[in-house]
Amino acid sequence: MELRRFTRAPLEQTLLFVKKDHDEYIEGTAKDISLGGMFIETPTPAPFGAELVIHIAFGKDPQEYALPAVVRWTRPGGMGIQFRLLGARETHAITKIVGHK
For the whole prediction, is pTM greater than 0.85? Predict the structure, then answer.
């Protein structure tokens, strides 16, 4: 039984993330996404509870988005993040990926 609040869609998109109050950008790959968050595959996941900004462009869209997030869980090779408050453009872009009209 699926217990997630939001439907997830598979994704294969390179991104950069940075911890709040840091200036070191770390590379990762978004593997799935929903309006609630995403899984990021990375050899250097941020610790549980870390506040991040995810910098990502979706597909052929040249617009780069800065998505505020918090780490909700980690495992070797990746982390699950929950989005903080997203703007209308970010919400619309994610909604198009997930397939809601």
Answer: yes
The H or E element spanning position 91 is: helix 88-98
In the numeric block, which tokens belong to residue 31?
């593997």
Domain total for the chain? 1
- 45 falls within a domain: yes
**64: domain range?**
9-98
**What does pLDDT average to over the chain?**
91
Q: Please give the Cα distance from 63 to 54 (Å, whole number).
A: 13
Please state, in angstroms and rounded to a whole number, the distance separating the CA atoms of residues 14 and 17: 10
Burial class (CB in 10 A: 0-12, 13-18, 19+), 93: buried
Asked whether residue 2 is assigned to any structural domain, the reply reads no
